[in-house]
Amino acid sequence: MAPLTFVTGNPNKVIEVNAIIGNAISIQPLALDIPEIQGTLTEIASDKCRRAAHIINGPVLVEDSALEFRAMKGLPGPYIKYFLESLGNDGLNKLLDPYEDKHAEAVCTFAFSSGPDMDPLVFQGRLEGKIVPARGPPIFGWEPIFEHNGETLAEMEHNKKNKLSHRYKALVKFQEWLSQTKFAL
């Protein structure tokens, strides 16, 4: 089985994806600078996937993460990367200061295309939690402020996180699709 190209420049994401999927799928990371459109999570991931499939001329998997604050009707959503770069975790917390509702959803969207000119398939996972002051190492940007069942994602032991996270839930859906369709990579 040839490795599936996983478009990411984040080595920690590669480690986590490999930990979740184990030997089920062999991935080959590739950092590509693909501009992101503005839109919904599905539109952004699908567009990035289409562009990547054209660049590599073959099957590709892309991932996009989001953080949705219920009090802000889903913002920052897919733009969390830019909010985090500008405000940091403390600034993200301050965005919610005027609101009593601190609930949030971590969202992971994977898009897969079997090659150029093939419509991407989207697999999404969600994890409910709340926004809290930062705790734990900042390996994955906003994970120190996202708490699920009393622990931030940054505080969680890796094996525990990799069995319940938004990324895990999206990858399970992708793996189920692969096994049901018998798609050969």
Automatic annotation (TrEMBL):
EC category name: hydrolase
Protein name listed in UniProt: Inosine triphosphate pyrophosphatase
Binding positions for Mg(2+) per the UniProt entry: 36, 64
EC number: 3.6.1.66
Subcellular localization(s) per the UniProt record: Cytoplasm; Nucleus
Comment on bound cofactor: Binds 1 divalent metal cation per subunit; can use either Mg(2+) or Mn(2+).
Listed GO CC annotations: cytoplasm; nucleus
Record: residues binding ITP: 8-13, 48, 64-65, 140-143, 161, 166-167
Family: Belongs to the HAM1 NTPase family.
Endoplasmic reticulum recorded as keyword: no
UniProt entry keywords in alphabetical sequence: Cytoplasm, Hydrolase, Magnesium, Manganese, Metal-binding, Nucleotide metabolism, Nucleotide-binding, Nucleus
Keyword S-adenosyl-L-methionine: no
GO molecular function: dITP diphosphatase activity; ITP diphosphatase activity; metal ion binding; nucleotide binding; XTP diphosphatase activity
Co-factor(s): Mg(2+); Mn(2+)
Biological process annotations from GO: deoxyribonucleoside triphosphate catabolic process; nucleotide metabolic process
Reactions the enzyme catalyzes: ITP + H2O = IMP + diphosphate + H(+); N(6)-hydroxy-dATP + H2O = N(6)-hydroxy-dAMP + diphosphate + H(+); dITP + H2O = dIMP + diphosphate + H(+); XTP + H2O = XMP + diphosphate + H(+)
Subunit structure, as described in the record: Homodimer.
Function as written in the Swiss-Prot or TrEMBL entry: Pyrophosphatase that hydrolyzes the non-canonical purine nucleotides inosine triphosphate (ITP), deoxyinosine triphosphate (dITP) as well as 2'-deoxy-N-6-hydroxylaminopurine triphosphate (dHAPTP) and xanthosine 5'-triphosphate (XTP) to their respective monophosphate derivatives. The enzyme does not distinguish between the deoxy- and ribose forms. Probably excludes non-canonical purines from RNA and DNA precursor pools, thus preventing their incorporation into RNA and DNA and avoiding chromosomal lesions. Pyrophosphatase that hydrolyzes non-canonical purine nucleotides such as inosine triphosphate (ITP), deoxyinosine triphosphate (dITP) or xanthosine 5'-triphosphate (XTP) to their respective monophosphate derivatives. The enzyme does not distinguish between the deoxy- and ribose forms. Probably excludes non-canonical purines from RNA and DNA precursor pools, thus preventing their incorporation into RNA and DNA and avoiding chromosomal lesions.
